[in-house]
């Protein structure tokens, strides 16, 4: 059987004024890699090298200047509407900046509820699923009525993660998923991620600056430096 | 020894609910006036007494140039004014909101097209168009509401667009996109709540503008002059010597009515605002 | 000499689900020139303490207690008096750098603003100074960085901008809420070095909130451990890392990578209705009978402050 | 590029609309040229139509019209008896002064007061201010102008009753301008106030505001250095839109203060169905609005880099 | 120092007459702008003029000789008239003016069809040779301004000509300046005027765009008198100015009136019985009370007011709703389906469109109510003037409200025939009668200048109106003109009210 994979091919990304090439600055150059379901690719790199940018491109929410992303063998540019919707559900990203990725005008409950609605969980079951997920990421019910700014950094991160996990994606791009968590909770979350990976065969692209986390989680490690990706053992 | 308690910054919750209560009450009063005008009004507003009577026990606000009881006119006027004001404002705000949100969210070609349309609507010479319509349409106030609604949405659209351009760049919108929410969902549940503060005043302003415009339209020849509305009352008060003879009981009350009605809408808007500020914890 | 006394600080928030006791009767001293690391569980109230010091809490917060800075009680100062202290004498690095920066101003302008407001420096001078600061924060092309907007920067870059901002005026106290979050090892080291250098030079004290035990071990003089709104242990840094007293501290150390990320079992407690007795007891491996119904008071023991019945 | 294409297309449509709408209105310029009673042969009507270029099919007229637009030849007026460009130029000077000043004051006061009120607490002072501006907004400009005129020019008598000037000296002109500019500025300010107030409220919950406080900025400093710029986007839009509206919207103020400006010109031309004048004015307004919008777009970009990157 | 109020302090000069008007002067073209040309008759008088008692007599023309077949008109020109630049006024000027109007004025189409040649005889006379007999040339000549040939001969396209500065004129005053931005037309004394010396130095016409502001200016003393062509001072503003002791009033029953026009070509208006029923449904007394605040008279069915020459006292109109209903019932307009609205002969509900301009909104409301109470439903359609003209000219209305002007009453064959004769058209006229009997009457009127015959025909016209009711007059209105008592000696004529040369030569500052 054809195995489900997420593949980046010759991704380049330039920022700056579109027309004048002088001002254009390439952040990513010619990056290619492939991640299979159930596998973790760790990406490390200095601050500002383009890890987040790469993550966003792979997740399909930012356009690469050049290159393509393939999901299950098809370029995501050419996906039909239905396939794109599937891709959209199956490839998720957890942002580095957790508070910024939550709508400031929505309570935690609403954020969750809408995802539940999106994935078609019947209304009567939603409460149960929601509480389950809260417990999974280690949040209590108290948080349901809070707005993002009423949560601590780590709590925001948990909400963001929980929301993504609900979708049961095939691939998750984790951009510094535990940066705001204390070490015990970080450990909990890392174990949780591993557990889910084992159960549901999720592929991770884990972006982190912490060598320990990467080596704990990743099957393969790549380092992003000066726009290029180098695999290390 | 205990230090003095720190002053708490937020006002008492009671006061807040009071003002929203006031808003609701005020709004309802106008609503009831409009609904039950025939019961509440002391006279038939088309019945003619002596013209230009000053306020008296019989006519609390006197009579106008045709001898109509001004108070009754005022009460009946709420029907048309509320309908035109709210109708036009709802229409204009709805169109403007949608156009602005879509343009700001989709950007690119959609933005260009929508803003192009907005520009065109913005610059359509309104008065000629209204005269044109007046000649071909049967006069009625819902047509006026429609016309105002269809012509007055452009600035809302542009204002909304400028703000939603800002908001749609934020991470949480990206995040929603990534979760696979439909564009419609993102526009209305992610972007919209974050620009509502600009839409609320825009809406209030449109309510007032529509009520006043309705009067000036008749000045230009559109509409049925025998229709009773607050704007119309002000209009006649001026063309028929209300100001020059200082008949304040004629032109002030309809002005006040417009003002208070808009104020009730404003207060409603504010209580929304306050509720939100309360949850967001800002003062 | 101590420069910041926090006495019986309690911060609660009103929410629809009830009152959140984010900080519960916290008292500690922060000596001058000292680096105090505050560690603790996610959501235990560290950032709230940091914000309370500068009185930057939202409206739904209720504060009580005292925060003495010199002879002033920061909580009772007027906004105007506070403005003179903020940024200049006490600066803070927020946890969420991207949202903390104004999206419509250039990075450089946001830094120079400090000089213009507090020092009334000329724009040229403040620009030069801001550029040099950016250089020290590991920006290879500080001129370029000066002209960028926050949205064009990565998370880590904004983080560094915030650090630059906090150090700019050589404040007496620097409150850093996870300043090295998201930075790679090398940069982290550089930044911390820079931080310590400035701290030494200017004799400032550093209030460091962090999850990074390595950093805390390396630079902190003392460590305060927080759990569920309370400070449960304060100890000198070597002591703390060598032999933590509180069971929670021991649990935490076990979650370190070196122990293969073995987490403390159980979930974080609710801050609205915290557990009776010792807040940690439901997850505590060494709990006693009393722990479940009586709250331990902080006591001094061998140079530490500890809040646990095991050490009574 | 796209932007320019869009503006050109919009311009094309609007300029076409400017041609068709006046012509679709019932009546024509000739009816109004005639007077109470006449007998004219079809022949002389035709001659008249030919003189005014109305004899040709609409489509041909339309093509000619475009030729004129491109050559910027606005033609001459049927009723004002001069070159349209000349009439407009003479009115535009005064109207621009009137409108320009009003936009300036209306924007400044509206924005600043609105920002202060949105920033501050909802205390009695701000409530009063809001009520005041609401009052102004809910008062038809006609009404407001007459009341102001009645009180200041008639009762107190410190301002003249009408016109742009009497003797033409600076103080004389200033005296004549004071009341109309006051009325227009107030009604503009009332709207700007509401918008700015809402916009500031939206901004003030943001974290960067809190951080600005942490930097040691004072309340007002934060408002005007930080919140104001972010919140001003909608206002810029509105001010750009104003240009067109006010010119025609100044009509009522012009009527009350007997100022022979653009508003009156439009109204007269409209009632008389003076096509060339109408087309000329609409063309000028169109261009002004397009330019203003274009500038506003540029200003957005300058203010907000995130918006600029979209280009 | 003391606050100097605007206007009051400056208006100390008792020898300058300030006239306030709210006419919309559009351009400084005395030949074509309809508002300015009213004022320009002071500087550029017409050949003929109307006397205060309504007769047409010579003005520039000393006397006229008319051939018995009305084909040849000889105008003898005053000999001591000079233009304000010192040139003598000559028959050449008159000839030039008539030809200029004939060739270049869009409103003078009739001249092309009527005037054959214009020539000058050696006795300082201008001779008009006509193509067909025309009896009313003198009336027409009372409304056209004399132009100085030496100025205007170089102006080929009057349509594109404005002169905001000095306009050479030959009246007692000439136009010194037309400053539309300031809103004034300034008249100075003609230095070469040889006639009786005016007792005032100058005349200023101040243009106010809003009548209420004009009233304030009057009250305040910034202007001395109100003047709008064919209009009374607004009745509702009178009360205030009456309270000002410095003002006095000229009150004259006008030759104009307000009337309800009927589309005679359409059922049911084509039915005389229906028209009569309408006439009984209207409460004239109330209309006068409400719309003219008492400054009006209940009209006769004969349409024309008593101020007109050869007035005939016909049946007064009467408010009698019962009678109206009776007539409607009797003539087949019963309410058979019982919905409160009568049906026409076609069985459909009588639902009429009342086409009005915004100025008549209130009257429309009243009419609508009167008709409703006799079971006729009307819808008011309020439109702007151009639309009104357009719809009216295309007979797209059932009822409409219109007013007549003094000139309108004497135009065409006179006696308001110009409003009804369907062979004519014009801005304010209805041209709704195409009855050969009426055409014959008009032609008869046009065929003679014989006083007896004219009277006879005028009576017949009034009888025709009385019998046929082509329009229902609503009220004959009284024109009220407030004036400052610091001037006295006011003279008015039915055509132009106070704005006539006789008046300006006559008024003088009041003696204290
Ligand atoms: N909108 C933009 N315009 C210009 N440059 C940008 C923009 N967005 C990102 N960049 C640049 O791209 C580079 C990569 O940014 P990115 O956020 O991907 O870094 P990162 O590797 O995730 O860093 P960190 O670890 O600090 O989060 C940075 O140098 C940043 O300045
Ligand atoms: N405005 C608020 N309203 C209600 N609760 C709040 C508010 N702000 C913070 N809290 C709660 O107070 C507690 C302490 O938050 P704080 O931000 O101090 O945590 P923290 O220790 O900094 O955690 P982290 O390490 O995750 O940043 C949290 O449980 C949080 O949910
Ligand atoms: Mg990143
Ligand atoms: Mg925190």
Notable characteristics:
heteropentamer; A: alpha/beta; Rossmann fold; six-stranded mixed sheet; 7 helices; 27% strand; globular; D: 311 residues; mainly alpha; 78% helix; binds adenosine-5'-triphosphate
Describe the structure.
The complex is a heteropentamer of chains A (233), B (283), C (312), D (311) and E (512). With 283 residues, chain B is an all-alpha fold. Chain B has one domain: MetI-like (MetI-like fold), CATH 1.10.3720.10. Chain B has helices spanning 13-35, 37-40, 70-106, 108-123, 126-136, 141-151, 154-167, 171-179, 183-191, 196-220, 230-239, 248-280. In chain B, α1 packs across α12, α3 packs parallel to α6 (141-151) and α7 packs antiparallel against α10. Residues 1-14 of chain B have low confidence and may be disordered. Chain C has 312 residues and is α/β, with parallel strands linked by helices. Chain C has one domain (2-89, 171-311): 3-Layer(aba) Sandwich (Rossmann fold), CATH 3.40.50. Helices cover 33% and strands 25% of the residues of chain C. Chain C has an eight-stranded mixed sheet with strand order 6-7-8-3-9-10-12-11, sandwiched between helices. A four-stranded antiparallel sheet of chain C has the order 2-1-4-5, with helices on one face. The mean pLDDT of chain C is 89. Chain D is mostly helical. Chain D has one domain: Orthogonal Bundle (MetI-like fold). Chain D has helices at residues 2-24, 29-34, 42-52, 58-70, 84-119, 124-138, 141-155, 170-204, 207-214, 219-231, 233-249, 251-256, 262-272, 275-303, 305-308. The N and C termini of chain D lie close together (10 Å). By secondary structure, chain E is an alpha+beta fold. Helices cover 28% and strands 22% of the residues of chain E. Chain E has helices spanning 34-40, 91-104, 109-114, 137-140, 149-152, 211-220, 238-242, 272-281, 284-291, 321-330, 361-373, 385-393, 406-410, 417-420, 436-446, 451-468, 501-506; strands at residues 16-21, 48-50, 56-58, 61-66, 72-77, 115-121, 125-130, 173-179, 184-189, 202-207, 225-226, 247-262, 296-297, 351-356, 377-382, 399-403, 471-484, 487-488, 508-509. In chain E, the strands form five sheets. A six-stranded mixed sheet of chain E has the order 13-17-12-16-14-15. In chain E, β4 (61-66) and β5 form a beta hairpin. In chain E, α15 packs antiparallel against α16. The longest helix of chain E has 18 residues, at 451-468. The two termini of chain E are 30 Å apart. The chains are: A alpha/beta (233), B mainly alpha (283), C alpha/beta (312), D mainly alpha (311), E alpha+beta (512). Chains in contact: A-B, A-C, A-D, B-C, B-D, B-E, C-D, D-E. At the B-D interface, α4, α5, α7, α10 and α11 of B face α1, α6, α7, α8 and α11 of D. The site of one magnesium ion has 4 residues of chain A, from α1. Residues 46-47, 95, 177 of chain C line the site of one magnesium ion.
